[in-house]
Amino acid sequence: MENGIMENRILIEIRNDSDKKFVFDGDWLRTGEWKSDKTQAIEAESLSVIEFKSTEVKGVRGVAWYVDSEEKDVYFSLVFANPRLQEPTFACFVGLPPQDLKAELEHAPTLMQGQTYPSACGQYAWTSAKVGNLTVIKVTIFPGDFPRFVPPTAANMPEGKPAEESPSTNAEPSAPPLSQETGASAPAASTVTTVSTTNSAQEDEEAAKKVTEFFNQTRPKDAVDGLWSGFSTATKGG
Question: Which pTM value belongs to this model?
Answer without folding.
Answer: 0.67
